[in-house]
Structure formats: structure tokens, C-alpha cells
Design brief:
Shape: globular
Number of strands: 11
Strand order of the largest sheet: 6-5-4-3-2-1-11-10-9-8-7
Strand content: 35-45%
Distance between the termini: 60 Å
Order of helices and strands: HHEEEEEEHHEEHEEEH
Largest sheet: 11 strands, antiparallel
């Protein structure tokens, strides 16, 4: 009788058997009031020998929106909320010309769900495979809808209490890698971000 009780106790306290779930990941990513930091995006195109690199700052307020400020190679500010994608023209927010930036727009919409911890939104379009622990996890997204299968072969995301890296592998062989750094959580938003979000 003692052996089965010991085996049950051992099982209950084994961290390997108590897997980190997508629901727990979602809760972890939704904990901060906001996430702010810098990003570097490298786009690897089959037709180019070197990646196209963009840099900038971002502000994410979970369930409210994302402010995406590309600073290099040129200045461009986008706001992504449930009511759509808007671009800052220096005075006002105007509807973004999504035909000119369709690739970037699709990516921003996609990882708005991810950065905000909306794994339920992602599960509608992808099969999710989560590995690791709350301190160091990797989430693989395999497309399951016809539309996503036309665009991506897979997406890999990794992080800890926030998302640190996203890699989008596209059907035609192109690849985008995004790295997030100098991240701060819960820091008061500046006036522009408060107005935007």
C-alpha cells in the first residue's frame, strides 16, 4: 500500500508531469498593465542576399491595442486596435493604406494576439505546441486554416514573462525574425501613447 501512495505523491510533485499550458501562458502575458520596449525586425527575402532590417519602439496594452513606432529606415507610427489599423500623419490618426503595407499589417495583427496573450484567438487559425516552462517557453504555431496555410509554414515564438522573439516562416520561403529588447512592464505611458491607446 505504501508504494502506490509514494508513487502518487511523487507524480503530484513532478514538474515535468505538470506541463505549462497555453491558458497559463495567456495569463502570464496578460498580467502586465502594459509592455514597452524596442524591436528589431529582420526580413529575409529569397531574392536578397542581406535581410531588410527595421528598428523602433512599441507599446502594448493588452486587450486595448498596440502602438508600433518604426524609427529606421524611416519614421512610421501605426496603431493597431480592434477597430482597425491606423497610421499617424503627424497631426491625426488616419486609416492605414494596407495595400502598401499588407505584409507588415498581417504580421502586426497576428502578433497583437500573441503579444497580448490571446492564445484563444491564435487557436482559431493555428495548432499550438507549447514547450518549456513559465520562465523559458517556446510556442510553435502550425497553420490549420486554408488562409494561414497559404501564407505560413510555421511560426515560432519564445519568451519568459513577455514575448522575446517571433519567427515567421512563409510559404514562399521568406522569413521574418523579430527580437524584442529593453522591455519594461507596467511603466507609465507617455502622453502620445495614452492618447493613441
Amino acid at each position: 500500500m505504501k508504494k502506490p501512495i509514494f508513487a502518487v505523491a511523487l507524480t503530484a510533485f513532478s514538474p515535468l508531469l505538470w506541463a505549462f499550458s497555453t491558458a497559463e501562458l495567456s495569463q502570464t502575458l496578460q498580467k502586465p498593465d502594459n509592455v514597452q520596449g524596442a524591436f528589431t525586425q529582420q526580413r529575409y527575402l529569397k531574392s536578397l542576399s542581406k535581410p531588410m532590417t527595421t528598428n523602433g519602439q512599441f507599446v502594448l496594452v493588452p486587450k486595448r491595442g498596440l502602438l508600433w513606432h518604426m524609427q529606421k529606415p524611416f519614421d512610421n507610427r501605426l496603431r493597431v486596435r480592434s477597430d482597425g489599423i491606423m497610421q499617424w500623419n503627424g497631426k491625426n490618426w488616419v486609416a492605414a493604406n494596407t495595400s502598401k503595407m499588407s505584409g507588415q499589417t498581417q504580421q502586426i495583427k497576428l502578433f497583437l494576439d500573441l503579444l497580448g496573450g490571446n492564445t484563444q484567438g491564435l487557436e482559431k487559425q493555428f495548432n499550438l505546441q507549447l514547450s518549456g516552462t513559465q520562465q523559458k517557453w517556446t510556442l510553435r504555431l502550425d497553420p490549420k486554416t486554408a488562409l494561414m496555410k497559404q501564407i505560413f509554414t510555421r511560426i515560432d515564438i519564445s519568451g519568459d514573462d513577455v514575448v522575446r522573439r517571433i519567427e515567421l516562416n512563409e510559404k514562399q520561403g521568406d522569413r521574418t525574425v523579430m527580437q524584442f529588447n529593453r522591455i519594461q512592464t507596467g511603466k507609465e505611458l507617455d502622453a502620445f501613447a495614452k492618447q493613441a491607446l
